[in-house]
């Protein structure tokens, strides 16, 4: 995008990073700088390829052997002369993505896809940690290595690349790991701590967050710019003479200035503004121009890939028309997604409709992808999750409204691959006019359930989708010795903040990437999710009760209250700590009766287990840590998580799911807390009936491992005989 730059030095530095030549002669500091896309060289002639496309979403690449370009801190010296530029293990175990081991997972995924003969790879956003130069340059170098072997890469932007539409030179991280096992703050040079020369902070622009324009040019050869090897390349703004495509014409129209659109705080600008203002009844405000990086490419004859820029950065209260390129003037795109695309990027909806119609008319195999899902990604359990868990839990604000699925289906698009939530899942939707849309969620390489999707058209109306798990990743434990130092430091420190960051060292004993990510999610659940998502009394129960106790408690009928639990020790590990003090009723029974009631419930629970061909005592092996870990792993990985559980545990969960009363007694509340005058079983039965119903829904969703999509018959069918389900 052509814009005046306030300082000549900053302009030249930016152009140097972009590898773009422009006038930087004395006296031209206020002259707009024209960014010219670099000329592409054809990719090497590949071996015979199939039309299969590998979708690798949310790689979140961090260059673990990068270069901070700082004389103050280079990372952790390694035996082979490199420097490990990594984040702490604690940072990983409290994040919904790994930062370090996914570096090796990306290599493993590419090697696996290459060995399968796949030569076309799509990355639906968040291909880097936060679009820092060190990480962008690192992943680009890896993709170039595989390009030399005949692979082609096509990327879409995510909410981490870019984080903001314009460069953020104040960004950074607090938790890079030092050789002593401590945390090191590293910020970009515009950060206040750098401007005040804070001696505890390392300052380098290798950790700045790059904006759209810089990324579009740096990553141009991975789809953002035309390539002579492609049969077609266009953007929503392309205009080819007589409708005939040529590389030269595409290149001439690929620059940032040719790909601008107007956005306003209230909605879409440009040709859509007048209608929007009329509907709103007042003028739109904070209108400005941003870049859209959407493109359509035909890398293989007959295959169309539509990379959709679904990032929507809405101007906010800090937007300054006098300084429209300040990153602070826009809301982040993470919670916007397609909810805002249909209101603030209406030109994209028209363009998608055009592409879908042309693909149908010309017999093209169209695969569309963007960073964000186009419909409910919680197996239609979103409302239940809102009802059961804390407000805002599980990032339900990111679930698209029902209007999104209708709007996207109405364009005629039939297949969309999304990412963002790091989930493995599938959903479909048919609108009122019969338009059918399938949304495939490609899981992240940086979480439990790490995998990529392979999508292939079997014929014009049938699509095959396979999930390729990454259980085995060479070199995944390469950085573990550095974490040992961190763990030793935390164990030896008496500083309160360090004590709070102690983590279970046994994760370093894992023997595969699959085991590692499985335990990572157990620790993520313990250290973060249980506090962040689960109400106090639910957290206490989930972290205290094993499967046997849960099954018995589902059958318990007693008048002993939560307040009386202290007088009946040793029966079940619950307290009234999360309850509000209420007034005891005149009909209160003795606390000692709980023992008899518990025994009666045990008899009923044993009957349920026996009827299912199971032993009640075996349910005790379902520990609290295993249960809440399983729950969160199923949220993310769907049926892949059930495969890891195994048939025996799935059968135990099926018994628990069916064990609760049809209509549990309501919870008496005092304000937003349960009253301690509730009978012991009431909060558990009311709340965990919902928890297990959600777990069943998540684990019994539409096929998400290996399945086929029948576009004509409008259905998704399981193509695997190895899947498990809670049904």
UniProtKB/TrEMBL annotation:
Signal peptide from the UniProt entry: 1-22
GO molecular function: hydrolase activity
Residue ranges of every copy of the Calcineurin-like phosphoesterase domain listed in the record: 53-180
Superkingdom per UniProt: Bacteria
PROSITE patterns recorded: PROKAR_LIPOPROTEIN
Keywords annotated in UniProt: Signal
UniProt-listed InterPro entries: Calcineurin-like_PHP, Metallo-depent_PP-like
Protein name: 3',5'-cyclic AMP phosphodiesterase CpdA
């Amino acid at each position: 995008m052509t814009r005046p730059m306030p300082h000549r030095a900053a302009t030249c530095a930016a152009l140097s990073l972009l590898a773009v030549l422009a006038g930087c002669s004395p006296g031209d500091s206020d002259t707009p700088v024209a960014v010219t896309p670099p000329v592409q060289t054809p990719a090497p002639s590949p071996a015979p390829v199939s039309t299969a496309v590998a979708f690798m979403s949310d790689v979140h690449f961090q260059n673990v052997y990068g270069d901070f370009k700082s004389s103050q801190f280079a990372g952790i010296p390694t035996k082979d002369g490199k420097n490990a530029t990594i984040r702490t293990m604690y940072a990983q175990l409290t994040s919904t993505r790994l930062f370090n081991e996914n570096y090796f997972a990306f290599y493993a995924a590419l090697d696996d896809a290459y060995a399968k003969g796949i030569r076309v790879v799509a990355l639906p956003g968040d291909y880097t940690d936060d679009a820092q130069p060190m990480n962008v340059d690192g992943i680009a170098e890896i993709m170039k290595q595989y390009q030399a072997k005949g692979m082609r890469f096509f990327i879409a932007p995510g909410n981490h690349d870019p984080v903001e539409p314009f460069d953020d030179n104040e960004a950074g991280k607090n938790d890079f790991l030092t050789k002593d096992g401590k945390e090191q703050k590293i910020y970009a040079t515009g950060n206040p701590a750098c401007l005040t020369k804070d001696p505890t902070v390392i300052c380098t622009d290798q950790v700045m967050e790059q904006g759209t324009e810089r990324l579009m040019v740096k990553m141009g050869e991975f789809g953002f710019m035309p390539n002579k090897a492609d049969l077609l390349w266009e953007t929503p703004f392309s205009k080819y003479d007589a409708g005939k495509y040529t590389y030269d014409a595409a290149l001439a129209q690929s620059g940032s200035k040719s790909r601008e659109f107007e956005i306003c705080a209230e909605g879409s600008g440009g040709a859509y503004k007048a209608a929007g203002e009329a509907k709103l009844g007042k003028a739109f405000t904070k209108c400005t121009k941003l870049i859209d990086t959407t493109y359509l490419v035909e890398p293989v004859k007959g295959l169309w890939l539509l990379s959709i820029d679904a990032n929507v950065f809405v101007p906010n209260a800090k937007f300054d028309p006098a300084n429209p390129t300040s990153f602070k003037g826009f809301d982040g795109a993470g919670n916007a997604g397609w909810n805002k695309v249909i209101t603030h990027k209406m030109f994209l909806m028209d363009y998608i409709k055009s592409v879908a119609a042309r693909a149908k008319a010309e017999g093209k195999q169209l695969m569309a992808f963007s960073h964000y899902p186009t419909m409910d990604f919680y197996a239609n359990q979103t409302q239940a999750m809102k009802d059961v868990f804390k407000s805002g839990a599980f990032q339900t604000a990111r679930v698209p409204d029902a209007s999104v699925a209708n709007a996207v289906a109405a364009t005629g698009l039939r297949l969309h691959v999304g990412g963002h939530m790091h989930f493995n899942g599938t959903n479909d939707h048919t609108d009122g006019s019969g338009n059918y849309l399938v949304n495939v969620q490609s899981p992240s390489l940086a979480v439990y359930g790490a995998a990529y999707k392979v999508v292939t058209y079997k014929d014009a109306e049938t699509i095959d989708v396979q999930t390729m798990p990454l259980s085995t990743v060479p070199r995944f434990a390469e950085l573990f010795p550095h974490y040992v130092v961190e763990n030793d430091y935390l164990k030896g420190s008496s500083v309160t903040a360090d004590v709070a960051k102690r983590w279970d060292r046994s994760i370093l004993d894992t023997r595969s990437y699959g085991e590692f990510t499985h335990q990572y999610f157990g620790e993520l659940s313990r250290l973060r999710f249980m506090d962040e998502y689960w109400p106090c009394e639910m957290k206490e129960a989930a972290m205290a009760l094993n499967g046997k106790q849960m099954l018995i408690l589902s059958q318990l009928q007693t008048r002993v209250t939560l307040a009386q639990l202290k007088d009946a020790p040793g029966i079940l590990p619950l307290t009234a700590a999360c309850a509000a003090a209420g007034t005891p009723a005149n009909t209160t029974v003795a606390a000692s009766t709980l023992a008899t009631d518990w025994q009666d419930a045990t008899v009923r629970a044993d009957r349920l287990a026996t009827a299912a061909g199971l032993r009640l005592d075996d349910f005790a092996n379902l520990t609290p840590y295993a249960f809440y870990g399983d729950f969160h792993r199923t949220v993310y990985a769907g049926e892949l998580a059930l495969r890891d559980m195994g048939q025996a545990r799935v059968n135990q969960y099926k018994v628990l799911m069916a064990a609760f009363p049809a209509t549990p007694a309501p919870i008496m509340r005092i304000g937003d807390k349960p009253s301690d005058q509730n009978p012991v079983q009431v909060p558990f039965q009311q709340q965990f009936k919902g928890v297990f119903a959600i777990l069943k829904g998540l684990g019994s969703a539409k096929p998400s491992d290996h399945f086929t999509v029948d576009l004509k018959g409008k259905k998704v069918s399981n193509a695997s005989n190895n899947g498990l389900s809670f049904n």
